[in-house]
Amino acid sequence: MALRLIEIFAPPGHEDKLAAIAEDFGALNFWTDAGPAKATQSYRIVARSEKQQELIDRLQGALGKGKSWRITIATIEATIPELEQPEPEQRSPEQTTREELYAEIDRGSRITSTFLQLVVLSTIVAAIGLYQSSVAIIIAAMLIAPLLGPNVAMAFGSTLGDRELVWRAALTNAAGIALSVACAAVSGLLLPFAGASIELLQRTTLGYDSILLALASGAAGALSLTTQLPSTLTGVMVAVALLPPAATLGYMLGTAQLPLAAGAASLLAVNIVCVNLSAQLVFLVKGIKPRTWLERRAAHESIRISLAVTGTLLAILIAIVYWEQTLAPPP
Question: Number of structural domains, the chain?
């Protein structure tokens, strides 16, 4: 069973309150290191990972709104002697706290030189793979594409009502997509159009399978973060939904194939909407929410707006697919 070491640095005088909270949540150990004469005291709690978010929230409430305290959280890899394991039916998947999630997601929401370099490299590799219709090369591009971070950050920020995170992630995502399209357009100038490959053509048509793939990708990306599962493979899934359509759009623009470029742009738009919608739904199901009442009120408004916008866009896009596949007259 996973354990957490929670260390609180705060002024003296909180020992009784923190000890009571630790006992309420069944902490395995609680102790303090510094004497009351010092300005800052260290309190430590060893607790199981179950209900860790509620424990962190209670600790913050007990410490107050001041800036004179700090909480750090670390995962304990092993303990001696070993703990008794609960019955299998009582086990619950390990879930990351809101604060741990925010710290990790915030890193992926920023425009950095590494992010831009990985976008350029992954787009070049993807464009070559699409041009040569090589699945192996396309998969290689997915492994280095950094598009999971900003897309999941937009959904996470909407869930918490954090407008700053949403706008920062949206800007990062827009910069990444725009850079990918531009790089692919340059590749279109170097790789002349002589009949589109199968892999390119597959990214210029919109279908129900594309919608399902993007929904699954966004859900997997959010789930990997909330349950501390490896995010590498789920990052590949999100990249599959976003990078090939972006590279195809750029290549078709670079080769002046405007009808095919329009199809790739539609697919890219659908995938962005679906990835963010499903990721946000996963965060809601997992109970990710702000701590205070005022923050929750703002988050509820943000969630309603975000779900309404993405849901409406998805409904319009599904209607377009239905029209093209069922009602549109044959060419």
Answer: 2
Specify whether 29 is located in the same domain as 138: no
- Average pLDDT per run of 10 along the chain, which is 331 residues long? 83 87 87 70 84 83 82 83 59 60 83 93 92 88 85 87 89 94 92 80 85 85 72 66 91 91 90 88 82 68 84 84 68 51
Of the candidates 136, 316, 306, the one whose C-alpha atom is nearest the C-alpha of residue 211 is 316
Residue 9 lies in a domain: yes
Closest listed residue to residue 321, CA positions, set 209, 202, 199: 209
Whole-prediction pTM: 0.72
Does one domain contain both 38 and 128? Answer: no
Give the span between the Cα atoms of 70 and 66, in whole angstroms. Answer: 10
Domain C-terminal end among 31, 57, 90:
90
Helices (H), the chain: 15-24, 52-63, 98-108, 113-132, 135-144, 148-160, 163-190, 198-202, 208-226, 232-254, 258-285, 293-322
Give domain status of residue 95, yes or no. no
